[in-house]
Amino acid sequence: MNQSIICPRFEKAMGILSQRWTGLILYQLLSGPKRFCALESSMGISGRVLSERLKDLENLDIVKREVFPETPVRIEYSLTEKGKALQPIIKEIEKWSQTWLPIEPN
Amino acid sequence: MNQSIICPRFEKAMGILSQRWTGLILYQLLSGPKRFCALESSMGISGRVLSERLKDLENLDIVKREVFPETPVRIEYSLTEKGKALQPIIKEIEKWSQTWLPIEPN
DNA sequence: TTAGTTAGTTACTTTATGTAAGTAATTATA
DNA sequence: TATAATTACTTACATAAAGTAACTAACTAA
């Protein structure tokens, strides 16, 4: 069959972004560092999966985890340079959604 | 908690794009109409899921399905205007992947 | 008549995600 | 001193999504 080869780097990027919740996590972190519970409550994500996603994104050097030994302990997640570089993608998704998706799509 | 509200249209868009395979299907269709078996063999997707995704994208008016009653029958999938408008997103993902992802990431 | 082609569908297995309860470290309250 | 509260998780189990492989329908070609 018509074997159009897909660029492996593009494929990798899509593999990251097409994980459930990843886009929304990045969207939230683009507006500044966030704590675990803030992320958890702002989207419908479960703690189990949020924990998993943050670890994956940390391993990919997209997200940085910082511990502040206060009381109770504060842990902040923020974007690395690599993570901040995703902003144009998120912006384009926002633009498309505003132009092409109806209000109240349920 | 810090309840930053997420734009429902952005959330909807992310819900579409974060479905496994959807990004790669769109990427393939951006280079022109494709047949079912061409899409199937160019990515690692199974027929079961490809069929499901194409139906979803058709219902969202992102993909158009056309039947050519030849022999054997030819069915072509292509992007609608709404679908073509996703190009800037795909382009930004390509850019990011080229800048930030290593070659041969395995 | 048997095999081949395309575009699927169906039944079943494996993987991913959701749910809810539990843990560790610390401080606050009764 | 015991109990509760908070944050950032983890664990065990249930459900949903995706993968696998075989099957179907409509047609042609050998």
Verbal overview:
The structure is a homodimer of 106-residue chains. In chain A, strand 2 (63-68) and strand 3 (74-79) form a beta hairpin. The mean pLDDT of chain A is 93. The first copy, chain A, is globular and about 55 Å long. Chain A is 54% helix and 13% strand. The first copy, chain A, is α+β, with helices and mostly antiparallel strands and 106 residues long. The first copy, chain A, has a 3-stranded antiparallel β-sheet with strand order 1-3-2. The interface between A and B is large, with 51 and 51 residues. The structure holds a DNA duplex (30 and 30 nucleotides).
User: How much is the radius of gyration of chain A in Å?
Assistant: 16 Å
Q: How many DSSP H or I helices of chain A? A: 6
Biggest beta sheet summary of chain A: 3 strands, antiparallel
Q: Can you tell me the CATH topology of chain A?
A: Arc Repressor Mutant, subunit A
Largest interface: A-B, 51 and 51 residues
What's the level 1 CATH class of chain A? Mainly Alpha
Beta strand count of chain A: 3
Q: Regarding quaternary structure, how should these chains be classified?
A: homodimer
SSE ordering of chain A: HHEHHEEHH
Shape of chain A: globular
Find the structural class of chain A using helix and strand composition.
Answer: alpha+beta
- The residue ranges of chain A in which pLDDT falls below 50 over 5 or more consecutive positions are none
